[in-house]
Specification:
Layout: H1 2-40, H2 52-57, H3 64-87
Length: about 90
C-alpha cells in the first residue's frame, strides 16, 4: 500500500507539470488567435515601433501563472510521496 501511494503521488506530480505546460501553450495559442482575428477584422492600428502580437502573448505573464501553480502542486505531491516513503511504518503484528 505504501508504494502504491508513493507511485500515485509521483504520477500526479508528473500530470500536474504536464497540465501546467499545456495551460501555457493554450494561453499562447489563444493570444495568437486573438491577434489574427483582430488583424483580419482590420481593428488594429499597427505601428512599426510596437509589436501587438508580442504584447498580446505577454498578457498575464504569458500564462506562466498556471505553470507556477501546477509546479507548486507537483512539489506538494512529491513532498507527500517523500513523507509517505519515509514516515509510513508497517503495523506491528
Amino acid at each position: 500500500m505504501k508504494w502504491t501511494l508513493v507511485i500515485l503521488n509521483v504520477l500526479a506530480a508528473a500530470v500536474l507539470v504536464f497540465l501546467g505546460v499545456l495551460a501555457v501553450a493554450a494561453h499562447r495559442t489563444h493570444a495568437l488567435s486573438v491577434y489574427t482575428e483582430l488583424k483580419q477584422q482590420h481593428l488594429l492600428a499597427e505601428r512599426p515601433d510596437y509589436d501587438i502580437e508580442r504584447r498580446l502573448s505577454t498578457i498575464a505573464d504569458g500564462g506562466s501563472y498556471s505553470s507556477s501553480i501546477a509546479d507548486l502542486a507537483a512539489a506538494a505531491c512529491l513532498a507527500n510521496a517523500a513523507a509517505i516513503g519515509i514516515l509510513w511504518k508497517r503495523p506491528k503484528v
